[in-house]
Amino acid sequence: MKLELRGITKRFGSLVANDHISLTVEPGEIHCLLGENGAGKSTLMNVLYGLYRADEGEILLDDAVQHFEGPGDAMAAGIGMVHQHFMLIPVFTVAENVMLGHEETGFAGQLDLPAARAKVREISDRFGFHVDPDALVEDLPVGVQQRVEIIKALSRDARVLVFDEPTAVLTPQETDELMGIMRQLKESGASIVFITHKLREVREVADRITVIRLGKVVGEAEPTASNAELASLMVGRAVELTVQKDPPDLGDEALVVKDLTVSDPSGLVIVDDVSFHVCAGEILAVAGVQGNGQTELAEAILGLQDHVTGSIMLDGKELVDASVRDTLDAGIGFVPEDRKVDGLVGEFTIAENLMLDRSFGEPFVKAGTLQLKFRDDFAQEKLEEFDVRAPGIQTPVGRLSGGNQQKVVVARELSRDLRLFVAAQPTRGVDVGSIEFIHKRIVETRDAGVPVVLVSTELDEIEALADRVLVMYRGKVVGIVPADTPRDVLGLMMAGERPEGAAA
């Protein structure tokens, strides 16, 4: 089925999320929609899927104009979407999830589960998915759950498939498997829209590439285009994609974590008996698929977790049971993985956000009085040093782009006298140009002799920055390996397999 978008425009108040976007996807084609987070890709696909109604423009399928009142209309027309965050009910079986919303009934109005099971088996066999229709979704690996999403779409005769950032929660091996599935779907005649910001994946699987920046189509490219060319289109300027760093100049063991266990309020163990150390002047990257305990590990180091046992020693000082104030005063800088929830106060100005964790004393406060001139001079200096693009220091931080918001967080945390820097997903939702800048600052911090704990789900980022890599799976340390460990080995470790020679 041929898909054509003509002049799609979508506004949210004064914000133009999509500005007269046009593109065509031919049958049997993988068309990649490439752009940074916030570029308008997902908004465009939500218009296509009937979740939003366009203010201007048309959607055509096989040259016929479509009018979708909701996702049901889009699905009936042959459009399926595989969302970044799976739309599955964990306690239902695969067959129950596949039939949900499209229930078929048999005798006396009973649900026809045998028909749903047969449909799952037929599609699974056709594409080699190896999915058990009676398996509970919550018991399936993430990669298999994604196949269930694909089966859902295909069971409704989808001939246009939209994959929205589909590799965000996959290991490298699962990503490779997904690319193979997309090629199979293409060969079956499906039209595929692949939304991503990852250059490696684009060049591997796309037939054509459309680049969106700030809600507009800024160019088209062939898969043969270099990463530098694609990044330049995404950002609007030349970008240095390679992180320049020398071998680490290691000092003493600065952070020593022993037998660390973190539980949730119900007693479920999330971080399970984890031990490691980080030397001064070293970047230890914590890798793993999202949800395997990395977030809780970083928060435990900061004193943000309540149910913690074991030991966290920084420069010989025990931090377990210390307050967050004490950990900050011990010299820990922290970039949280969700800047909007944990890193910034959107209604506060840039100047106010830059002093958030130092508002208790000098030099920002003297004798109980806020030193406005010092605060504003400091903020102006950091605005320039960290290249924060904003009208001025009195701009509410919530009005900044994601990349500039992240620069404010990084500027605040790196402007203190640090003994340890913990960065959790430091470039999530950040444009390529800001990634380049943030990576340089992390390396500079390490080169200044500060130990760095980097938590990231992006293997490209880990390969670029890490001196050693600690891999977590289901709360445990699978192994600690050198930074030059091959991607396929790291991928196996992220799935729980420990290679020979990996420190536990």
From TrEMBL:
Residues in ABC transporter domain copies: 3-239, 255-499
Entries under SUPFAM superfamilies matching the protein: P-loop containing nucleoside triphosphate hydrolases (SSF52540)
Keywords for this protein: ATP-binding, Cell membrane, Membrane, Nucleotide-binding, Repeat, Translocase, Transport
Compartments where found: Cell membrane
Topology within the bilayer: Peripheral membrane protein
One GO cellular component term noted in the UniProt record for this chain: plasma membrane
PROSITE patterns: ABC_TRANSPORTER_1, ABC_TRANSPORTER_2
Listed Pfam families: ABC_tran (PF00005)
Classification via InterPro entries: AAA+_ATPase, ABC_carbohydrate_import_ATPase, ABC_transporter-like_ATP-bd, ABC_transporter-like_CS, P-loop_NTPase
Any GO MF annotation of the entry: ATP binding
Name of the molecule in the record: ABC transporter
Lineage: Bacteria, Bacillati, Actinomycetota, Actinomycetes, Micrococcales
